[in-house]
Amino acid sequence: MTTSSASRLAKKFIGGGFLHREIHIWFLTPKGEIIFQHRAKDKDTYPDKLDATVGGHVEPNMSYEETAVKECKEETGIDIDLTKLIFLGKMRKKSFDEVTKLTNNTIRAQYAYFYEGLISDLQIEKGKSEGFEAWKIDDLPHLSEIDKSRFIGLIVREDMLALFQKAKTILVK
Predict the structure, then answer these.
(1) Residue 1 pLDDT
(2) Closest CA to 123 of 76, 78, 79, 80
(3) pLDDT cut 70: percent of the chain above it
(4) pLDDT for 104-157, tens place per residue?
(5) Number of domains in the chain
(6) Contacting residues for 34 by C-beta, under 8 A, at least 6 apart
(7) What domain range is 52 assigned to?
(8) Which residues are 16's β-sheet partners?
(9) Can you give the CATH number for the domain in which 33 is found?
(10) For residue 6, what is the DSSP state?
(11) Mean pLDDT of 83-111
């Protein structure tokens, strides 16, 4: 199977609402911030929205951790140290993108990573990202409706805000 046909098949499978595995990694800074990735304006799902620092689909025969290492390198240029990757939990999520009319149905492993570097040191994956933004974890529950609309809807839900607080408690001293 060619790369382009595999990519089309993956988009059809994922956007069609079929259950699949994903990872999210949330980079936390020493200032108690999360670094969000700003998705490209032409992404197939959730274009122009703020999302996890790193996210990706777990390929067959790969573990969540192997995927985390691979996706982190691809999306940020950072070689993460697996011993510093903190597992926060797995979540079953099903969401519908109002813009593209695609459904994402996942079992998603959530990880936190303590990042002490500069946001400007993170490499942007061409065609997939507009860049990165840091937001204080303590400010997320109090966002205006305009700011909330900048994020993928699931990110500003109560369960995710609680997950971010958990990550902050573990990593930020």
Answers:
(1) 39
(2) 76
(3) 91
(4) 788 999 999 999 999 999 999 988 999 999 999 999 999 999 999 999 988 999
(5) 1
(6) 26, 27, 28, 53, 134, 135, 137, 140, 164, 167
(7) 3-171
(8) 103
(9) 3.90.79.10
(10) H
(11) 87
For the chain, helix, strand, coil in percent to 5 are: 35, 35, 30
**DSSP annotation of 140:** G
Residue 33's identity, in one-letter code, is E
Rounded distance between C-alpha atoms, residue 166 and residue 54, angstroms: 18
Distance (Å, whole) CA 131 – CA 125:
8
The owner of tokens 């060619």 is: 2
Residues 6+ apart with CB under 8 A from 101: none
Q: How far apart are CA 77 and CA 166, in angstroms?
A: 26
Token pair for 94:
């099903």
Secondary structure of residue 107 in the 3-state scheme: strand
Q: What is the mean pLDDT of residues 156-165?
A: 96
Kindly report whether the global pTM for this prediction surpasses the value 0.90.
no
Percent of the chain with pLDDT over 90: 71
81 burial (CB, 10 Å; 0-12 / 13-18 / 19+) is exposed
